[in-house]
Structures are given as structure tokens and as C-alpha cells.
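User: For documentation purposes, I need each entry recorded in a consistent format: the amino acid sequence on its own, followed directly by the corresponding C-alpha cells. There are two entries in this batch. Please keep commentary to a minimum and don't merge the entries.

Assistant: Recorded as requested. Entry 1:
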Amino acid sequence: AERGLQCYVKLNGVDCLALFDSGSTMSGVSQSVVDVAKIPNFTLDPPLTLQLGCVGSRSKINFGATASMTVGA
């Protein structure tokens, strides 16, 4: 079975498991990682629409964030 590219990264100094997708047009992080790594976030006005590659899949992104990420040693 094929597996996606994943590795540990540091977000704001906290170790996190990241999944890399070369075909993605945006990056995302879970609210739990935002909370644990104390990543500052802000409300998006207007929210962004997220549509996945399958029919009927739509959602809204209500918050944005900026964090420092380190990959490797």
C-alpha cells in the first residue's frame, strides 16, 4: 500500500507529526495543535471555502494562523 510523505516537524518549538501533500493548495493545522503549541490565530473575514476532491464535500475555514516550522535537525 502506498503511504503519504510524513515526518516530525517543530511548530513553535513543539514536535508535531506532519503530512505533506504536493497537490494541496493550502496548509492546515488542527485546533489541538494550535492550542498545545500556542500558535496565535485570527478570524478570517470572510471565511474561506474548503472543497475537497469528492462530490458534495464543502466546509468553511474560519481562522488563520502563522507559525514557525522547522523540518529536520
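Entry 2:
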Amino acid sequence: MSNFENANAKSAEERKRAEMHRTYGMWYKEGATASDLVSWCDARIAVYSEWIKNCTELKHSSQAQLLSGMSKEALEAALAALNAQ
């Protein structure tokens, strides 16, 4: 195989990996079986589900902290301003 062919093959592989990374968050080894992919997806879904739960809890507690220092009047004014938009 010539250097040109090697460069083209390497470039095609890099494009394939970049596309997989954009679509799935990582690239898979060449020849991965359906079982490998299902297992990987299950593991990623479990991790991301936990992160989403944690971020949701953090968001809610942070929102409560932000709002706890505001008066009822200030909250009503903020809501009225949002509704006016």
C-alpha cells in the first residue's frame, strides 16, 4: 500500500471516528459486536441517567437557595415581568 493510500485510509478512519464521537460520545473499536454495543450503551445510559438526576437535584436546590432570599413582592414582580414577555 502506498503512502497516499495509507493517508487516505487513515483520513477515512479519522472521519469515521469523529462522526461516531459526535453521534455517540465516543468511537467503537472496529469489529465491535452487537452485544458489545448494547453493553456499552447500557453502561453509558446508566451513567448519564445518574448525572441527570444529580444535576436536576442541584438545579432545584440552587433555585430554592436563590429564591429563599427574595421577598414575596420581588418574586411576584419577576413573575409578572416574565408573563409580560
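Summary note for entry 2:
Residues 1-31 form one domain.
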